[in-house]
Write a structure and sequence with these properties.
Helix content: 40-55%
Structural class: mainly alpha
Distance between the termini: 21 Å
Strand content: under 5%
Length: 51
Amino acid sequence: MPMVECVAIPTIASHLDQQGAFRSTEVIDAAATGLLDELRRWAVALKPMRA
């Protein structure tokens, strides 16, 4: 089953500061949290198969 969660970052250049460091937003943070939560669920579910 594919993971459908993603983190979309439109116009990434607008999220870079003067030094080129990425500056996130609440929307991006929420999407990243959802993606990482789903990835953890998959990792836990598939762990027995790796043993």
